Structure formats: structure tokens, C-alpha cells
Predict the structure.
Amino acid sequence: MRYRIISRLLTGIVLFLGISASAWAASASISASGTPLITINASGTFSTYTICDSNGQNCYTYDSGSVAGYFDNSYMCGASGHGSANCSWTMDAGHLSQGVHTFKTVASDLRASAGQATSITIDNTPQVTISNPSGGVTEGAFNFTGT
């Protein structure tokens, strides 16, 4: 009896060690590009798991998960899917406040979560060039306008 319990325990350990850790993983990626409109794409991929009852006879495959996109910790988009999911949104960089902003995605499946973040720095300081008088030097008060 004792031998049988130890044998089953060792078999369980060997089976557990035979499953790669990467087999239990969701992955996430995010990209942001464009000016002045920034398009942000959040995506996730999900692992496929086979789940069986305690007898190992009633099994099913599970490959679903969800992905969510965030801007400065505010939820912006989300999607669910089998195997993968994607969501995206667009922002006008001209309306963002000065400084560093973070875009983040989180992907989750049955057994794991993964995240990725990227940051951009907004610097909307206007460039001013004086072309007249020559030499670019002027004295006194003046007004300028722009868009």
C-alpha cells in the first residue's frame, strides 16, 4: 500500500515536470504610433489547455481569454477571443497634457496573465522662428498667434 502511494506521487511529479511552464502562458503586446493622431493597438494571445474531470475521461479544450488596453491607468478598450484578441483606440496628441503618458495592455487566459507597457512624452511647446527683420532679432512688445 505504501509503495503504491509513493509510486503515484512520483508519477504525478514526473507528469507535472513534463509540462513546460511556457505552455501555461498568456502573452500581451502594445504599440502606439502616429502624429498628431496616435493609434494604439493592444493584443493578447492565449494558450490552449485541455481540462479533464478527476477520472480523466470527460475532457474539453479551453483557449479563450481577454485583452484590455489602458491609458494612464484608465480603461480604454477590451476584447475577448479564442486563441487571441485585439482592441485599439485613437488619441489626438495635441489634446494630451505635457509630460509622460503610459499605454498598457493586459492579457488573461484560464491560468495566466501577462502585461506590457510603453510610454510616450508629449512636448507641445511651440517652435517660434522670427524671419523678419533679418537676423531674427526684434525689440519691444509683440503679439503672435498660431495653431
In short: Residues 1-23 have pLDDT under 50 and may be disordered. The beta strands are 27-33, 37-45, 49-52, 59-62, 64-71, 74-82, 84-92, 99-109, 113-122.
